[in-house]
Each structure stands twice: as structure tokens, then as C-alpha cells.
Design brief:
196 residues; alpha+beta; Pnp Oxidase, Chain A; 6-stranded antiparallel barrel; 4 helices; 9 strands
Amino acid sequence: MNHAADTTGSLPAWHESLLSSLKAHQEESGVFYVQLATMENNPSNRTVVCRGFFRNTSSLMIATDCRSNKVKELKAHPNGTLCWYFSKTREQYRISGTVRIINASFRNRRDAEARSNLWAQLSEGIREQFHWPEPCSFSLETMSTPPSLDNPPDSFCLLVLKPEHVDYLNLGFRPHHRIIRKLQPDGSWFEREVNP
């Protein structure tokens, strides 16, 4: 099956599929934990928390420390891949695309608002972490009384991954079910069912 599965301006079919997978696993505490792979000189992979969709699009949000290695890697190569595995339904989503970094110096008002809104949704404990020393530094001290947690510090940034390639695999079928989807220049998604 090959076809342009989605129309420009609408949310793609894989978006709805991902929402269904999330709903099926909503009772699991780690349902929003995903692996984010980046590349500089060598591949790098780590677990992050997906914070939802960016402004009613299919772009995915991650909160992170601007001083982290992942941000340095994304500045050098602004591409990343998220990998999500849902154990109950045995589904895997590999979502690749371009990653934008929205930090304190971002001047686009709507993007700056999105960064501030995400900050407001984080727990106090998570917000405190952005006042800790630089990640991977040799200082293990944390501030006993951090400054106000009302506004995001310069160390807080929002990563927004705009999906351009989605590889869906369902191991719950025999034979396994796999669909590759690619974003087209006109904004539609080309879909192909492939051998797993």
C-alpha cells in the first residue's frame, strides 16, 4: 500500500495512532519516557520525557537544560530521532526530524510563550534542577534555596522535534505490521506498508 495518506493542514494518521497507543498505556508511570538519539562525532542516546505536542501540531516537546550535551549536539546537527516502545500493545514508533531549540534569547513571541507555558506545567522539583550546576560538571552541590521558580532561568530550554519520518512497527501481529511515513514538501505524508 503506497499513498499520500494525509492532507496538508490536518494531523497525520500516525499522530492519531500515537495518541491511541498513549491512551492504551496511560496507567503506566513511564508512558511519556522516550529515547532521544542525536549525533555529533558519535551517536548519542538518552531517555527524556516527552511533554506533549507543540501548539496543536504533530511536533513533539521536550524540556531540557541548555547546558546539556544533547543541546550542544543539536546545535551542531539539528536532527534527532525519538523511539517509543509500548510493551502492552507491542508497538514501536521511531520519529525522526529537525529539532528546534527554544531558549531564553528566542524572540518569537509565540515560541517564547510556549517555553514559559511548559515551565509553568513542570513540578517545583523539576524546576529546581535547572538551578543546579552545569550537567556533567564536577560540582555536586545543589542550591539549598534556589531563586524564584516563577520564571524559567536561562538554563531552561524547550526542544521541539518536527517529525519528517515516522517508522511504525507493531509486533502484536503475525506477520508483524510495519508502516513507513515520510513528510512531503507540500505538507502531506507519503505512506508505505513494508516488510518488517
